[in-house]
Amino acid sequence: MKIKTHLLTAAAAAIAGTLFLSGCDKPATPAPTEAPAEAAATPEATATPEAPTPEAAAPAAAAPVTNDEPKELNLFCWSEYVPQTVIDAFTAKTGIKVNVQNYASNEEMLQKLLSGGGQYDLLQPSEYIVEAMIKEDMLMPLDQSLIPNLKNLAPEFRALDFDPNNKFSVPWMAGTVGIVINVEQVTDPITGFADVFQEKYKGKIVVLDDAREIVSWAMATNGIPMNDITDENIEKIRPTLQAWLPLVKVYDSDSPKTAMLNGDVALGIVWSGEGALLLDQEPDKFKWVLPKEGTHLFVDSLVVPKTAKHPKNAEMFINFILEPEISAMISADFPYLNPNVEGRKLLSPEQLANVASFPPSEVVAELQTFKDIGEQSSVVDDLITTIKVE
Amino acid sequence: MAASATATPAPSAAFERKPGLGAWVFMAPLLLWLLLFVVVPTGMLIMTSFVERDSLGRLVYNFTWENYIRAFDWKWLKILLVSIWYAFLTTVICMVVGYPVAYFIGRSPDRFRTLLITLVMIPFWTSFLIRTYAWIAILSRDGLLNSFLISASIIPAPIGMMYTPFAIVLGLVYTYLPFMILPIYTSVERMDGAMIEAAYDLGAGPVRAFSKVIIPLTRPGIVAGALLVFVPSVAMFAITTLMGGGSNPTIGEIIQKQFTSARNMPFGAALGTLLLVLFCVALWATRARGRDDAD
Q: Which residues lie closer than 8 Å to A131 by C-beta, 6 or more apart?
């Protein structure tokens, strides 16, 4: 009995310890250094400018580089999205220490912000979250006089539906969702979602682990506008999803390229940045296609929450990343669709020719963005879970 | 959540011995720890499971049974049963593999024992997530194992091992095996060797000595090991997501999703509370059996 009690107490402590461990966030990407290393290994990356010295990065327009706030900035951003070189260059130029915290999903960021536990000056949400945050009056209007580099943004990124005049948000990177094909294993032409979800590709498909995304593809295939998430439309797409999901081998939003690279799957519906990295790495093996049924544009923006303690430092950071040289550095590490036209001019021809990073501009002009669907997100999640286990 | 279930024996055992003031002083840090990190969070979890939420996922403090009504649905039950099945397989495999190892270490000479038990612990020096990624590199279609088997002409074409229930259970067994070995080792180490000699002297063969003497003497270690492996295996989400690829979702993954993409904390909390109740019942059943055996 004595031994048992002793062991059970030890068990309790160990289980609690295990829960701590298993409670740790699941990683956003397999290895923290993977993406930069990949990018650095490509010839394109070597063609991009080195980390600029403070002088080299000096903006043409005279934005102030000091203010009366303490030299501190609390940045809460996606993991694997803000290069350390950019943060170091900002600190070198302004003397502001940047405390970086990462999140793996928009909702995780939202939870932490709403719980009030952390102190954040700058966030990096996606468009539908920006929309919800504006609606809920959670964001601070930006002082545009402190962000003269806004002029570097492409016109279409200064007139986005969710924040038409960049009153609250400044785009960081944008992208699409498309199909990546391993041409060594798939020889038939693939032009859209319907070509991917065929019985013969069963067990060879990776898709994003994102219910909203999967539902939007099924809606596009059925000719329904992707933001019209109503009970009626959900019933309409249910048969499509019931045919699709049993064919899927892997659901992964964090690093879908891993399953493609390891050869476990031959077809993927993934973020354009993941596709761009695959094309960079093995251009003969992988091919990128924008689905003919349609896709959407996602835009991740920098925003300042109302609770920010250092809003001016945050605006200074926003202006800093809009500088062409800095923007090009971000593109080198994370080859998404760069909204900064001046930054794009500094990219190599190879970088600009990557079809996953930069789709034709007439295509971009047509793309819609996701709208906030509020409580429906739970309905959409349930729908996918239900069909997965059927 | 599981911690509170297994933590209950500690205070009740303390009552039985009628501790003096000194004992309470020594216990204070542990009790405070249990209060802050077990009792309070469990209370918050249960409270959250009875409220509503708004469109951003913020809690709205109106009492509701809605989350529990939703939870009693065949689809969640199915996922739970599958998770329990994976955890059960994991526990059995860990026991079969871990018992001989623990016995061997416990019976080996003193000077080797520390070394051997350190070897069991060494994997803990690396994060389990990194070790799981290592398994992905080994098991994937173009991975180490397939390359080896093909080059050795054992198999003609690569086998798809990743993203299957096999990969999930392998990942769980690999991660939790030390949790089975350590408590059994403790039991074996404390076991009086004279008992085994006595069994042989009285005419028992190896099988009988093992089943009638060694197993009962090490039962506390076996029970503790089984709990230590089974409980976290049911709720684990990181390993099952990485190794299973999300097409065989486990209850841990579903709960994690409620707290993130579904923006539905109350429902996640309800599922978590139900899991907690399940563990309490299981623990109570094991304890009740243990008492019967003692009588």
A: A162, A163, A371, A372
Task: State the pTM of this model.
Answer: 0.81
Q: How far is B78 from chain A (nearest CA, A)?
A: 8
Smallest CA-to-CA distance from A320 within A204, A201, A149, A161 is with A149
Query: Which has the closest alpha carbon to A321: A298, A338, A305?
Result: A338
Across chain A, the runs of DSSP E, i.e. the strands, are 72-78, 97-103, 122-123, 169-182, 205-207, 248-251, 267-271, 286-289, 297-303
- Return the residue matching tokens 């609690």: A16
ipTM of the complex as predicted: 0.81
Q: Given this model, what pLDDT does residue B285 score? A: 84
Q: What is the DSSP string of B172-228?
A: HHHHHHHHHHHHHHHHHHHS-HHHHHHHHHTT--HHHHIIIIIHHHHHHHHHHHHHH
Which one of A24, A257, A389 would you mutate to disrupt binding with B, by most B Cβ within 10 Å of its Cβ? A389
Q: A55: which 2 tokens?
A: 């002088």
Q: A91-95, B191-195, B222-226: lowest mean pLDDT where? A: B191-195
Q: Which residues pair with A74 in a beta bridge?
A: A99
**Residue B252 has which token pair?**
């841990």
Q: Is A159 on the interface with B (CB under 8 A)?
A: no
CATH 1.10.10.10 holds for A34-174+299-358: no
Residue B45 makes CB contacts below 8 A (sequence gap 6+) with B1, B269, B272, B273, B276
Domain ranges for chain A: 34-174+299-358, 175-297+371-389
Residue B40, class by beta-carbon neighbours within 10 Å (0-12 exposed, 13-18 middle, 19+ buried)?
exposed
**Token pair recorded at residue A162:** 């969710």
- What residues of chain B lie within 8 A of the CB of A386, using their CB? 75
At residue A82's C-alpha, the angle toward residues A78 and A83, to 5°, is: 145
Does A185 touch chain B if contact means CB atoms closer than 8 Å? no
Tell me: the pLDDT tens digits for B52-74? 998 888 899 999 999 999 999 88
Neighbours of A365 (CB within 10 A): 9
d(CA A358, CA A37): 21
Test A31 with B241 for CB contact under 8 angstroms: no
Tell me whether residues A14 and B179 touch, CB distance under 8 A.
yes
pLDDT single digits (tens) B136-179: 999 999 999 999 999 999 999 999 999 999 999 999 999 999 99
Q: Which of B137, B142, B294 sits opposite A1 (nearest CB)?
A: B294
Provide the token pair at B282.
């299981």
CATH number at A175-297+371-389: 3.40.190.10
CATH number for the B72-294 domain, one of 1.10.3720.10, 1.20.1250.20, 3.40.1060.10, 3.20.20.30?
A: 1.10.3720.10
Nearest to A59 by CA among A320, A368, A349, A293: A320
